[in-house]
Specification:
The chain is of the alpha/beta class and about 325 residues long. It has 7 helices and 27 strands.
Length: about 325
């Protein structure tokens, strides 16, 4: 069965300060890190071995996921001392398994995407076309911030244009790739390589069989604070979500798709809206919190107002509007 690779080594620069102590894929979205949601999606597609390609704050992943047995999966960790770029990270991760002559495909996920698309259907499509590489494509209103991917009427990829000012199509790279091992062998070892700016354009130019699998499912890149809050709200839906062992004091009103993690305590008469609250957080009485990210194990004093803030046990910083 196919082997998964999660690209989770980026710096999460656009999400700062939320990523000061936590890599972007480990930030809780509706009470669960994006990485965990992706593992569940991979498992649903029958992928049981997944390699986490880590770099920035790599030490945060292992204590949470361990060997993967809690999820009934096998997890391996490929740590880049210096970030190798998306292509270098894939090559480095695949080296953990004996891939050279393998008939198994690799399913590679950008680590910051919430996607409801059908990975099994993408794999079927890849096999039916006998493709070397198959990218999930999605249509967006404004393609400028993404990889633009024009295809022909059979879905064959004609070009790959990363972040262009005047996009030639609204179909973009949605960050889930299926590669045959021969594609991985082509990426140079121990070298910084961008899959988007180098590997994809080269594959297309050299006439390799690269296909776009179009599926217009729920899709979001959580790469900015605004998007992170939106992603969490989308999952929570109306109202709010509370994790196991958390308690909410009398008279407190929680709205706007707020999510509260596990074993957190909210005092009495608080007003909380559009916020993400982690595990083991203690919030006093009569607090107002809106548009804020309260990290695991933070404490907030009685009567405080927290508007558009990032709070961790050691930090209290504004979240810039993006
Ligand atoms: N291991 C590792 N090493 N991971 C990395 C590295 C690295 O050097 N650089 C980036 N990543 C990971 C990030 O953590 C993220 O999960 C993923 O690769 C994509 O990087 P982003 O920085 O989020 O890229 P982007 O959002 O600007 O663009 C990418 O995603 C778009 C879809 O959201 C591109 O793949 C676009 O083509 C695509 O449309
Ligand atoms: Mg991204």
């Amino acid at each position: 069965m196919a082997i998964g690779i999660l690209l989770v080594g980026g710096m999460g620069t656009r999400l700062k300060p939320l990523t000061n102590q936590t890599p972007k894929p480990m930030l809780p979205v509706a009470g669960m890190p994006v990485t965990e949601r992706q593992l569940l999606a991979a498992k649903k597609a029958g992928i049981n071995t997944v390699i986490l390609a880590t770099s920035y704050l790599s030490e945060v992943f292992t204590p949470y996921f361990g060997d993967g047995s809690k999820w009934g999966m096998k997890l391996l960790y490929a740590v880049e001392e210096q970030p190798l770029g998306t292509g270098g990270a894939i090559r480095n991760a695949a080296a953990l398994v004996d891939f050279a002559d393998s008939a198994e495909e690799f399913v590679i996920l950008n680590g910051d995407i919430l996607s409801g698309h059908n990975i099994s259907a993408q794999l079927d499509f890849h096999r039916r076309n006998q493709a070397d590489a198959t990218l999930h494509l999605i249509e967006v209103a404004d393609a400028r911030a993404f990889g633009c991917v024009p295809t022909d009427s059979n879905g064959r990829v004609l070009d790959f244009l990363e972040k262009m000012e005047r996009p030639v199509t609204n179909a973009i790279n949605a960050g889930c790739y299926i590669f045959n091992s021969s594609v991985i062998s082509q990426i140079p070892e121990n070298t910084v390589v961008s899959i988007e700016r180098e590997t994809f354009p080269q594959l297309v130019k050299s006439g390799r069989s690269v296909f776009g699998y179009s599926e217009q499912s729920y899709w979001l890149d959580i790469g900015t604070p605004f998007a992170l809050f939106q992603g969490s709200r989308d999952i929570v839906g109306e109202g709010f979500l509370v994790g196991q062992g958390s308690q909410i004091g009398e008279g407190s009103v929680i709205t706007g798709g707020t999510s509260i993690g596990q074993s957190s305590t909210i005092g009495a008469n608080c007003r909380i809206t559009n916020s993400i609250i982690g595990d083991g957080v203690q919030i006093g009485n009569s607090c107002t919190i809106s548009d804020s990210f309260i990290h695991h194990h933070s404490q907030i004093a009685d009567n405080s107002k927290t508007l558009g803030k990032y709070i961790s046990p050691t930090e209290n910083l504004p979240i810039s509007a993006q």
